[in-house]
Amino acid sequence: MSAIICFSLTFTLMIINAVMGIFIRLNFYLLLFGILTTGFTVALTLFDSKNIFYSKKVKKPVKSNTVRKAKTKKVEHQTKVRRKIS
To answer: Membrane-crossing residues (predicted)?
Structure first.
């Protein structure tokens, strides 16, 4: 990521200098590109050092019982039949 940023900065500086009439050798731009890339890489590493180097906690999946069987009691309906005595 830092190389992309440094390349775009160096290339933009080359174009601006060429338009303004300032001609600098290519060695200077390559040296500038190398120094900027190294600096940005170190800065990004120090800035995100906690995210890069510290161990990350792994979350274990929790089993969820989404389908639960309803506890139902079996009720037997009994009807009392009255007998007629005749």
So the answer is: 28-47
Structural domain count of the chain: 1
What tens digit of pLDDT does each residue of 16-40 get? 998 998 888 889 989 999 999 999 8
For residue 10, the enclosing domain spans 1-55
36: nearest Cα among 73, 6, 78, 58? 6
For residue 1, tell me if it sits in a domain.
yes
Question: Which amino acid belongs to residue 60?
Answer: K
Within a domain: residue 31?
A: yes
Q: What is the DSSP letter of 54?
A: S
Compare 72 and 84 and report the one with higher pLDDT: 84
Whether 10 and 36 have beta carbons less than 8 Å apart is answered as: yes
Single-letter residue type at 69:
K
The number of helices, as runs of H, and strands, as runs of E, in the chain is 3, 0
